[in-house]
Amino acid sequence: MAAPPSAYKDRQFLAVIGDEDSVTGLLLAGVGHVTDPPDSQRNFLVVDQKTENSTIEAAFDRFTQERKDIAIVLINQHIADKIRHRVDTYTAAFPALLEIPSKDHPYDPEKDSVLKRVRRLFGE
């Protein structure tokens, strides 16, 4: 059954949680957005080795639960591994959650939570 239009009609932005190279590339492609003041929330989070897991989890929660203008959340797979318990339990249709590779960390389909769910649906 398809979701009603009210579930997705205002969702017009991508959100990115990734390393500096991935986020920079996507920002150069034009996905960057900052909400109006006074809160001025960005739709991206640059994660480096100093970024705490709680910060990543807070951004994930903000993008998936609080912001109703986000249609797709892109997250580097090696960063998703840091909050794997959150990523694996996320089941909402909107925003869609996609794990992407980074320059230094190749994509591993065995870790992808969406691909695991698809395989279960098809009985693999």
TrEMBL record:
Subcellular locations according to the entry: Vacuole membrane
Keyword rRNA-binding recorded: no
Presence of keyword Ion transport: yes
A family per Pfam: ATP-synt_F
Location (main, coarse): membrane
Record membrane topology: Peripheral membrane protein
Alphabetically ordered keywords of this record: Hydrogen ion transport, Ion transport, Transport
Known partners and oligomeric status: V-ATPase is a heteromultimeric enzyme composed of a peripheral catalytic V1 complex (components A to H) attached to an integral membrane V0 proton pore complex (components: a, c, c', c'', d, e, f and VOA1).
Family as reported in the entry's similarity comment: Belongs to the V-ATPase F subunit family.
Primary role: Subunit of the V1 complex of vacuolar(H+)-ATPase (V-ATPase), a multisubunit enzyme composed of a peripheral complex (V1) that hydrolyzes ATP and a membrane integral complex (V0) that translocates protons. V-ATPase is responsible for acidifying and maintaining the pH of intracellular compartments.
Listed name of the protein: V-type proton ATPase subunit F
UniProt source species: Coniosporium apollinis
Phylogenetic classification of the source organism: Eukaryota, Fungi, Dikarya, Ascomycota, Pezizomycotina
Gene behind the chain: VMA7
